[in-house]
Amino acid sequence: MARIAVIGAGKWGQALHYALSQKQECLITSRTKRDIKNFVNLQTAMECEYLVIAIPAQQVRQWLKDNFKFNNQKILVASKGIEASSGKFLNEIYEEFIPRDNLGFIAGPSFAAEVIQGLPCALVLNSLNEEIFISFEKFFPDFIKTYYSCDVIGAEICGAYKNVLAIASGICEGLKLGNNARASLISRGLVEMQRFGEHFGAKMETFLGLSGAGDLFLTASSELSRNFRVGLGLAKNKTLDDILIELGEVAEGVKTSYAINSLRIEHNIYTPIAAEVYLILEGKNPQDSLKDLLRT
Ligand SMILES: NC(=O)c1ccc[n+]([C@@H]2O[C@H](COP(=O)([O-])OP(=O)(O)OC[C@H]3O[C@@H](n4cnc5c(N)ncnc54)[C@H](O)[C@@H]3O)[C@@H](O)[C@H]2O)c1
Ligand SMILES: O=P(O)(O)OC[C@H](O)CO
After folding, report:
1. 27 and 110 part of one domain
2. Residue 279's CATH number
3. Given 1, 32, 82, 223, which is the most exposed site by the fewest CB atoms within 10 A?
4. What separation in Å is there between the alpha carbon of 106 and the centre of ligand 1?
5. CA 119, CA 140: separation in Å to the nearest integer?
6. What is the predicted ipTM?
């Protein structure tokens, strides 16, 4: 009987399933049946002792309410985002259903398209309980190096915030503002997400490591990123609806922009780049945002 299962068979779920199948049998399940080796129904997957959950952040709460039965499983959360309707971080939502000692969160630069080819990659497994890291690290294949961190909130904020900054970077690229502008945007973005994280108790060193700078540099500088591609589309004045239909996959930065906008207002945090991304998603002309960012 397999001990580990991936829940969610989108791009990331499938890539993690590929990686976690290298050393042992790994099951996978999703809402719709897929033609993947070891695909099982949800009930069978849920019987595994170790679960990796890779469903979009905005669907997590409802999915847990409708499907999850706690049976002392150890869980790694693979999603990156903040719930827009409540401004809650994913660890807060999961902790409403599962004891925090059973939970871990994956962070770090990791395009599914490269993981599924077995290309080398480094990830951080974050948990308040180091035993979670120790339990899961042995499942990962040789091409993935895993690190441990107890900074769950820092990892959560890095993974979510960098998606919003990747949208900004895609806009910068789409407007053909040049390499200098993009480097400035990414480095100011890193400072901004660190300031945001500090407010919520994140450790500063997290922002300079794989989860922060690592994932931000990756996502904000490549068309492999869905969030970056959303930015490219916005710069071309495409409507958000058209961009998301064309994308056909989740771009977490869109909803997370709304969550960060509510949190920055509620907590009075200075987040100029995320604020402009939110305004552009609400219809502001990107050129006007650029002028405002250069002035403030
Ligand atoms: N793709 C990547 O490179 C990558 C890397 C790291 C983290 N992530 C994160 O992983 C999460 C999933 O991303 P993805 O790339 O797999 O997205 P995707 O768009 O490829 O797939 C999303 C999956 O979630 C499932 N899903 C959607 N709504 C659901 C619901 N209500 N209940 C259950 N399942 C539902 C879909 O069926 C699909 O299988 C996101 O938070 C993303 O930020 C993605
Ligand atoms: O394609 P994106 O923009 O969702 O980014 C994927 C991963 O989060 C990169 O680490």
Report:
1. yes
2. 1.10.1040.10
3. 32
4. 14
5. 13
6. 0.98
